[in-house]
Structures are given as structure tokens and as C-alpha cells.
Amino acid sequence: MIDLREIAGRISAVVLAVVLAGSLAASAAVAAEPRRDDCSKGHACPATGPAPANAAASSGTPRPSVETPIREPTARNSKSLRWNIQNRTGRRLELQFYSADRNWVWPSANRVYLLPDSQRYSINISCRRNEKICYGAWLASNTRTYWGVGYRGRQSCRGCCYICGRGQTPLIKLVW
To answer: Cβ–Cβ contacts within 10 Å for residue 100, how many?
Structure first.
């Protein structure tokens, strides 16, 4: 004869184990995300402000930023473009690259490169051969002050776009 109380106890134990495993995984995911004051080179850090136009639907969380450039995966039949940029504004800047030929953003639609003052950066991005790519930079504290195509890539610019597959850009100095 089957004892229903024993089966119910086993089912409850399995459900409890699944719930505990899920909450431990969620705790680990939260613990792995650094706080703003723990941010250092190479760590993803939260940034404030609305997400770019082609970002995924808003979840109410701040969009993350990248302190230093990350290597982009190289796709078949793609080329690359190395951007050489220096922030000389005395303020912290955020930076993204936008394709003028397709709906694409580097490092991604919901991530930015953070540029502390006076540092030079070489950022290598994977892109399509002959694709026109423009940079957009803005004050981390105010998206209305911008360089290149600015926040979300919506401004016009002169000399802020380069063609993929042609090596690297000259040193771009972002100044007031």
C-alpha cells in the first residue's frame, strides 16, 4: 500500500530543494555584480540614465557600463576597426560606437565604455567590411554635452565616422 504522507513529504523536500537552489543562484548572481564603489578597470559597473534606443525593454535597472574595452568576437567575413581615443575634458565620459549602415551599437545597446580623464584608449571593434562607424561620447553626468554623434547616436558630426576594415583611427582627443 502507498503511504501518501511519505510521498507528500518527498515532494515537499524536492520542491524545497529546487526553491533553495534557485534562491542561492539568484544570491550568487547578485553578489557577483560589483557595487559602484568597487568598480575598477575591467569590471562592469552600473551607470545611470536611460538606455539607448535599440536596447532591450527596460527592466527598471540601470544600464551597465564597461570601465575598459572588451574584445569583441570576430565573426566570419568581418573586419575590425581600432579606435584611438583620449579624454582631455577633465570630466568622466561615456562612449559608444554606432553603425551608420545598420542598427548596431558597440560595446552593445545597453553598455558603454567609461573614459576617465587623460587616459588613452585603444578600442578594437569587430564590424562589417566598409561599414561606416561613428563615435558618440557624452558627459557621464549630462547626456546633453556630447562629442561626435552624442548619446544614442542622434546628432550630426564632422570627422567622427570611420570606415571598417581600414586599420585604425588617428588619436581622437575629446576636449572642451
So the answer is: 13
CB 39 within 8 A of CB 45: yes
Report how far residue 173's alpha carbon sits from residue 176's, in angstroms, rounded to the nearest whole number. Answer: 10
Split the chain (176 residues) into runs of 10 and give each run's mean pLDDT.
53 38 34 32 35 38 41 55 96 97 97 91 96 98 97 96 96 95
Distance (Å) of CA 25 to CA 16, 19, 21, 22, 153: 14, 10, 6, 5, 37
The structure's pTM equals 0.60
Lookup result for grid cell 561620447: 137
Write out the three cell numbers for 132: 561606416
- Dist CA 1 CA 121 (whole Å): 73
| Cis peptide bond upstream of 107, omega within 30 | yes
Distance CA(8)–CA(74), nearest Å, equals 53
